[in-house]
């Protein structure tokens, strides 16, 4: 009975530590988002020119339009007004298209970027994990060398160069795949492949190295000595521990993929967040730049938080580290 009570107490203490850690990370995320919005606001304001100074518009007209939008007010007043609206969920309107709210642009472009990012993430995780496991488990040297060489090649080619090469080969020369847009599943193949090459190579290397190390440990060797097959021992025992370094990489990588690749979306003419962001900078659309930056920052923070919590749940060592850190703080 005493052992059961002690186990329940330890479990509740662990849940409390995880709750405190989660709340702490959420608070840090909110503060980081406020800092990001603040820095971006002032950087945007010191950009030369005006969002309305285009097409030979006279300076008098520019001043009148800026006064209408409150851009003639002191910069700190503008900052407080913007942050007040942001805290209410109001991203403002686009200066280049006053009839369109920034939230509408995000709502329109985000699903497009997310669809490409999720597909690239799935391909990179599945391909990288599979090749990493095969490289670690295979007894054939030729297989290991081919996977290693292909990974080095994929990791060494910049994403934009891979996109251009894929476009020239499969779209321009062979004419097998469409070159732009996202009108059908076939349109996803080239941009998803270009985005997935580098993370797949990194995941393959991380999985292979970590799994090779786990396969040399006592618990794996003991499982094999008991008669468990190699593949079953890998998937039952070793892969869970070996995958923690991969999860630590997948978090930031997935955040990057989900917020869009500016170069890929520009090359393949994909109407996503990346292309909208490039266009907003070109047009000096202050509110659109700020809105896209804050939204993409929120996605990055949320994905990284989810990854950290998943790693803490899977790794007992991480949980013990939180317990020690919590004990030091109390002292």
Structural account:
- This protein has 331 residues and is an all-alpha fold.
- Helix content is 79%, strand content 0%.
- It is built from 14 helices and no strands.
- It has helices at 2-45, 59-68, 75-87, 102-137, 141-156, 159-173, 185-214, 218-225, 230-242, 244-258, 262-267, 273-282, 286-314, 316-330.
- The two termini are 31 Å apart.
- It is a multi-pass membrane protein.
- Keywords: Cell membrane, Membrane, Transmembrane, Transmembrane helix, Transport.
- Belongs to the binding-protein-dependent transport system permease family.
Q: CATH topology of the domain at 102-330, what is it called?
A: MetI-like fold
- CA gyration radius, whole angstroms: 25 Å
- Beta-strand residue fraction: under 5%
Q: Class of the domain at 102-330, according to the CATH hierarchy?
A: Mainly Alpha
Low-confidence stretches: 318-331
Oligomer: single chain
Largest sheet geometry: none
Beta-strand segment tally: 0
Q: What structural category characterises the helix and strand content?
A: mainly alpha
CATH superfamily of the domain at 102-330: MetI-like
Mean pLDDT: 81
Number of helices: 14
Note the gap between the termini.
Answer: 31 Å
Task: Tell me, briefly, the overall form.
Answer: flat
Keywords summarizing the entry:
331 residues, mainly alpha, 79% helix, flat, disordered C terminus
């Amino acid at each position: 009975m005493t052992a059961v009570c002690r186990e329940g107490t330890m479990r509740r203490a662990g849940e409390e530590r995880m709750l405190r850690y989660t709340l702490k990370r959420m608070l840090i995320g909110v503060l980081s988002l406020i800092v990001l919005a603040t820095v971006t606001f002032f950087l945007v304001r010191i950009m030369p020119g005006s969002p309305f100074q285009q097409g030979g518009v006279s300076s008098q007209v520019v001043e009148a339009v800026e006064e209408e939008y409150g851009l003639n007010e002191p910069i700190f007043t503008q900052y407080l007004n913007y942050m007040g609206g942001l805290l209410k969920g109001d991203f403002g309107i686009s200066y280049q298209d006053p009839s369109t709210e920034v939230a509408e642009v995000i709502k329109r472009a985000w699903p497009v970027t997310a669809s490409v990012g999720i597909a690239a993430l799935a391909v990179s995780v599945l391909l990288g994990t599979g090749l990493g496991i095969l490289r670690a488990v295979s007894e054939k040297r030729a297989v290991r060398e081919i996977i290693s060489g292909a990974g080095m090649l994929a990791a060494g080619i910049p994403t934009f160069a891979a996109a251009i090469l894929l476009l020239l080969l499969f779209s321009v020369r062979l004419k097998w795949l469409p070159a732009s847009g996202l009108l059908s599943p076939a349109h996803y193949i080239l941009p998803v492949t270009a985005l997935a090459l580098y993370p797949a190579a990194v995941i393959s290397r991380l999985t292979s190295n970590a799994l090779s190390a786990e396969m040399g440990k006592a618990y794996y060797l003991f499982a094999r000595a008991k008669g468990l097959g190699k593949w079953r021992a890998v998937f039952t025992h070793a892969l869970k521990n070996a995958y923690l370094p991969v999860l630590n990489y997948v978090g930031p990588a997935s955040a990057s993929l989900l917020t869009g690749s500016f170069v890929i979306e520009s090359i393949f003419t994909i109407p996503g967040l990346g292309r909208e962001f490039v266009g907003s900078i070109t047009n000096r659309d202050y509110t659109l730049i700020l809105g896209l930056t804050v939204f993409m920052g929120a996605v990055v923070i949320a994905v990284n938080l989810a990854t950290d919590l998943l790693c803490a749940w899977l790794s007992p060592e991480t949980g013990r580290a939180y317990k020690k850190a919590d004990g030091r703080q109390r002292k």
